[in-house]
Amino acid sequence: MSKVKYYYDPDTLSYRKIEPKKSRRFRNIALFFLGSFLFGFLGLILLLNTNLVNTPRELSLAREVKNYELQFELLGKKMEQIENVLANIEDRDNNIYRLYFEANPIPEEQRRAGFGGVNRYKSLEGFNNSEMIIATTKRLDIIQKQMVIQSKSLDEITKLAEEKEKLLAAIPAIQPIKNEDLTRMASGYGWRSDPFTKARKMHWGMDFTSPKGTPIYASGDGTITRADNNASGYGKHIRIDHGYGYMSLYGHLSQYNVKARQKVKRGDLIGFVGSTGRSEAPHLHYEVWKDDERINPINFYYGSLTAEEFENMLKYANQENQSLD
Ligand SMILES: [Zn+2]
């Protein structure tokens, strides 16, 4: 309640009430409202700036950021799984595939190399979440590079495997005469007594004794380089060039089944046992050459013999008997 004010009126000699002016009253009321409004407004601004209260929009943005962070964490876990699988493939690649095909393992530093030089991640800098996004991008870049290197390595392995397959098909790896066609294993590679002079001399091949006309088979894929009677001692003979430095020779034949320059596959019938040239009795004289040197053919029969047969052949071939040449 406002106080009622009085003043002394000398005309009437009495105290009289002061009547407030209407205009002044209105002004006071207006000022009061203006002041309240300003104070309230300032207070609100202060309050909003102190983070004590969030607007609904801020709350929803904050929730969204939280969700991004969670999703990033999940993606990080998935990347970790991919990294583990890749590491496993790389391990097999280095220690099994590349080892088997005699290729050098690819070093870890080369497989895990990121990108050097200019800063590729400049555009990602300057945000609250820059660190997290740059780290993730770097990880993905490395994974991508790893995949390319791994893929190239497998291409190389495929090529090497094809080569190895050709090499394995080319190597003279079977016995040139069927076991059931053999009368006996006459003589192996090594020092033997010469059937003609009886002197000890090196026998450079293996002699397979079997009747005249017994089929002779190519011991590996290759090209016939010779099928003629013009080499001293061998009589009618065949030579097959297998590539990779390998050559096989078949001597003392009675008949050819192939011509020079003809391509043959392992197991193809190339001729028939005879006793032409420097020979005592029908047999096949068989030689294997590697880089222009004669080597022991017995090391190449794994393709056609059982362990027991190989054992038997080894026993006979090592007997120091007389060769048939
Ligand atoms: Zn011989």
UniProtKB/TrEMBL annotation:
The lineage of its organism: Bacteria, Pseudomonadati, Bacteroidota, Flavobacteriia, Flavobacteriales. Gene3D superfamilies: Glucose Permease (Domain IIA) (2.70.70.10). Residues 202-297 form the M23ase beta-sheet core domain. Residues 65-92 form a coiled coil. It comes from Arenibacter echinorum. Pfam families: Peptidase_M23. PANTHER family: LIPOPROTEIN NLPD (PTHR21666:SF286), PEPTIDASE-RELATED (PTHR21666). Keywords: Coiled coil, Membrane, Transmembrane, Transmembrane helix. The chain crosses the membrane at residues 26-48. One of its GO terms (molecular function) is metalloendopeptidase activity. This is Peptidase M23-like protein.
